[in-house]
Specification:
With 467 residues, the protein is of the alpha/beta class. Among the domains are: 134 residues, Four Helix Bundle (Hemerythrin (Met), subunit A) (Up-down Bundle), CATH 1.20.120; 187 residues, Rossmann fold. It is 43% helix and 10% strand. The chain has a seven-stranded mixed sheet with strand order 3-2-1-4-7-11-12, with helices on both faces. Strands 5-6-10 form a three-stranded antiparallel sheet, covered by helices on one side. Strands 8-9 form a two-stranded antiparallel ribbon. Helix 7 packs parallel to helix 9, helix 7 runs antiparallel to helix 10 and helix 9 runs antiparallel to helix 10. The protein is elongated. The chain starts with a helix and ends in a 5-residue tail after the last helix.
Length: 467
């Protein structure tokens, strides 16, 4: 038995160099019983630290596996009336109801959410670019688009968010309606504004509060001429305040300016223009107009109120169909109406008319009129027939800095009418030689001024002492 006695002492000195006990070490003790020659001996404290580190690593690995399994697991479908709570039944119902299925890849963000319609969602949803069908040579022309509220700047006021959505969807279309809605929204922005400590309203309000509102509205739809003019006046008013002006006093001054502006440049301007234009309608006249414009409609109703006996010939925009609403409004007022659904009968309608009134969205510095697409066709045909063409426009829509000779410089693409075959512009430009005069709210006789004289008219409006 000498062999047994010699083996026991040999195993005893090798014990201190053995690795910490693990399932692998326990299963194969001969491999760890003796340390290789030259291996440094670990102290009990080092062995304890090593075991603790391995334990923490195993826990972290277990958590990662558990999280990955939870992310990849399909969402159970809501129990239906036939569900009994069985596991196999629940999985089958979830598959039939189009429950969440993980996509091939890494990360939990690749899984789809359940479809509300019960259909399995597509693997990849790509939003169509609305401008992809527009040729490169027309890429400079802007187009209205609906900006999701979630993508708007956090500083945009809720009232401005609503106005932007209405503009993008053309719930409010003409320039003056957009101007009024914008000013009312800015009024709420001013009322809710509080100057941060260490700042003044005259230095902080425009760059940090007003500009984010303007940028959002411009992204929804390109800014019209009246909005641009009004915003410049509003910014000038803010900059006129002294740095020491109390916040309440400055805010009150801005609110008063907005109220006065809306009363004078919108409400009163509407009244004066319709009054002056109605004086140019006489008994027996057949007045031709295009589409539906707010100022033209008020002019017809004012002339009827004055007791003038006349008829109206309407050539409608085939896309907008505003002439149909104008026709109903005039018939209710007792005014005879001739209605044409498009420009097909343009020559006949122009020859029959004795007077032509057209609404304008803006007037450029060179006298060109910016109006709804189709207005230029009516004005050119009327001038070639020897008929007088008069445009109606508020002075807030005058642009004293820019000129235009075509419809491709300042325009918009109709978001509803564009495809790979073509697109439609919302406006056109009528050269000044086809416009006999522009009726504005500025009282100069009948308010009828040459289209080329808008700069002189604006200077005289700002300084009545100019002759």
């Amino acid at each position: 038995m000498a062999t047994e006695g010699s083996s026991a002492p040999a195993a005893t000195p090798a014990a201190p160099s053995a690795a910490p006990t693990t399932p692998a070490n326990t299963a194969n003790p001969p491999a760890t019983a003796t340390a290789p020659a030259g291996t440094p001996q670990l102290t009990p404290a080092q062995l304890k630290a090593k075991a603790k580190a391995e334990k923490q690593a195993r826990r972290a690995q277990a958590k990662e596996v558990k999280a990955a399994a939870a992310a990849a697991a399909p969402q159970p479908a809501p129990p239906g009336p036939d569900a009994k709570g069985g596991k196999g039944k629940g999985k089958q119902d979830a598959a039939q109801a189009g429950g969440t299925q993980p996509r091939t890849g890494t990360g939990p963000n690749l899984a789809h959410r359940p479809s509300m319609s019960g259909r399995r969602p597509s693997i990849l949803v790509v939003e169509k670019d609305m401008r992809s069908s527009i040729p490169e040579c027309f890429s400079h022309i802007p187009m209205a688009k609906r900006i999701p509220i979630s993508q708007a700047n956090k500083d945009v006021h809720p009232a401005v968010l609503v106005v932007g959505q209405q503009m993008a969807t053309f719930a409010i279309k003409d320039s003056i309606s957009r101007l009024g809605a914008t000013l009312l929204a800015f009024r709420k922005v001013i009322e809710a504004y509080e100057t941060p400590k260490g700042n003044s309203l005259s230095r902080h309000f425009v760059p940090h509060v007003l500009n984010p509102q303007i940028e959002y509205l411009t992204e929804c739809r390109p800014m019209c001429f009246s909005m641009g003019n009004a915003i410049r006046l509003l910014k000038a008013k803010v900059n006129s305040f002294d740095i020491d002006t109390p916040e309440d006093e400055a805010k009150e001054g801005l609110l008063e300016m907005i109220d006065l502006f809306m009363n004078e440049r919108i409400t009163l301007a509407e009244f004066v223009i319709s009054k002056n234009a109605a004086k140019q309608i006489y008994d027996g006249d057949i007045v031709l107009t295009y589409g539906r414009h707010r100022l033209v409609e008020k002019t017809f109703l004012k002339a009827k109120e004055n007791g003038v006996d006349f008829a109206v010939s309407i050539i409608d925009d085939p896309y907008d169909r505003g002439g149909q609403e104008l026709s109903k409004s005039l018939k209710e007022a007792g005014i005879p109406v001739y209605y044409s659904p498009n420009l097909g009968g343009l020559r006949h309608n122009v020859r029959r008319a004795t007077n032509i009134l057209l609404g304008a969205e803006a007037v450029f510095a060179n006298g060109s009129v910016h109006a709804a697409a189709g207005t230029a066709d009516v004005a050119v045909a009327a001038t070639n027939t020897g008929k007088k063409v008069t445009a109606l426009c508020e002075t807030i829509n005058f642009d004293r800095e820019r000129v235009s000779v075509d419809a491709l410089t300042y325009n918009e693409i109709d978001p509803e009418q564009h495809s790979s075959d073509g697109f439609r512009l919302l406006f056109d430009t009528t050269r000044d030689q086809y416009i006999a005069g522009v009726i504005t709210e500025f009282e100069s006789g009948t308010g009828n001024s040459p289209a080329q004289a808008i700069l002189a008219l604006l200077r005289k409006q700002e300084d009545p002492t100019i002759n």
